[in-house]
Amino acid sequence: MQIAFEPVAGADRGDLQQVVKNYDVRGLVGDTLTEPLITALGAATADELKLAGEELVIGHDMRDSSPTYARAFAAGARARAANIVHIGLCSTDMNYYASGARGAAAAMFTASHNPSTYNGIKISRAGARGISFDTGLAAIRDRAAEYLDGGIPAATTAGTETEIDVLAAYAAYLRELVDLSAIRPLKIVVDAGNGMGGLTVPAVLGDASDLPKLPLEIVPMYFELDGTFPNHEANPLDPKNLVDLQRRVVEEGADLGLAFDGDADRCFVVDEQGEPVSPSAVSAIVATREIARASAEGEDDIHVIHNLLTSRYVEETIEAAGATPVRTRVGHSLIKAEMARTGAVFGGEHSAHYYFRDFWGADNGMLAAMHVLATVGSNGEPVSAIAARNTPYFSSGEINSTVEDVPAAYERLVTALGPGGVGADMDELDGITFSSGGRDWWWANIRPSNTEPLLRLNVEAVSEELMVRVRDRALELIRA
User: Residues 17-31: pLDDT tens digits?
Assistant: First the structure.
């Protein structure tokens, strides 16, 4: 048998234990994440997903290391007889589109919102189905370790390699799902953060394709693809990265602003006053539209997923619209699996990941943005009024605390807040959630980080005063 490459040792090997996470691969370029490691992961992916003679779509973002890593992964997968379909520069949801439309497994090279020194891989089974550590990533990691130790045995016949462009088809498909042709004219500022939104926004919402022009005036910010992120990190979840967009929306007198993360699979909304719209409010808005559409098509058993950190209002909205809410843990691949299991029409997360049944159950920030534009453009209300109606309660946002002894912190929280303390109900769906019902209701969730000695606190309550009181008491217990 031929060997695709020799066994790898030392610094060039990288660190499989560090880079293979719960839902993806992520590491430091040239340090924990190296080309030989990527090649081994490519071969291991082809084997684990049984891709000999089958297609494997490979796309990448604008980071300097992404094209090189994509080629290294392709080399390993081809050695194990996978047929590579390169789609080149793309957003993560474009990668999902290619996976879904072609019924093929896929690999996306991106580190999402992380700084330029990072890169990673998001791997999908055919049909954009997610893979987690427990459903394939651990096995891929272990196979890759064997290949790094012993080399990659080449298959009798290597896989093929082709290149295609899916941008136009992706844009046309999204236009079919959300029709914006008849909305009132809107002026929107879009901050792409030098990420892949600079490619996808002009194609889907603008005039960079052969699609009919939409009644949208787009004011672009940082559309130049640049993996060094010269203006700010492509992480809109951090408030400091929204400041430029907030200022520009007000200066332009725009109807709203949109901010995409580095791989453009998440989208954040800013109202006409420059105020952020919570992802929970966006989830409620999109859920209402998707439930109404499914109902109009005759469905009577409609499910919508929300993770346990979204606002209580999301669950109330789903129920009021006549659908069944499904509460889940936090996690990309987990929610994809729940979308498939329940047949849910939509799923929303507090982190601005939005999942659609019509998009193979995968997340798509652009599609969520289009639903928001359709809502705003179909009536005369400003975004601030729509957002306020969908944000009736008070949230702390996520607060991280460094905690060396997590079990001791949990014990303090349970003693003080649980049935033996203030009497709150408890569940352990994801971390610990304390909840107190009735007129003065509140809930607090405390989850450990998967990678750092941190506890993450989220609190919501019916009043701001109650939210602050619960938040401060929980932080006191966590940090004691």
Answer: 999 998 899 999 999
| Chain segment 285-324, per-residue pLDDT in tens | 999 999 999 999 999 999 999 999 999 999 999 999 999 9
d(CA 269, CA 365): 11
Which of these is catalytic: 65, 66, 112, 124? 112
Picking from 323, 437, 447, 441, the residue whose alpha carbon sits closest to that of residue 393 is: 441
C-alpha neighbours within 13 Å on the C-beta side of residue 236 = 35
112 given a catalytic annotation:
yes
Domains of the chain by start residue, with CATH: 10-165 (3.40.120.10), 168-274 (3.40.120.10), 279-389 (3.40.120.10), 394-478 (3.30.310.50)
| Residue pointed to by tokens 């909304």 | 269
Structure tokens at 95: 């990668």
Q: How far is Cα of residue 46 from the mean position of the Cα atoms in its chain? A: 24
Q: Give kind and range of the element (H or E) at residue 276.
A: strand 276-277
List C-alpha distances in Å: 442 to 312, 395, 424, 438, 474: 9, 10, 9, 9, 12
pLDDT in tens, 160-197: 999 999 999 999 999 999 999 999 999 999 999 999 99
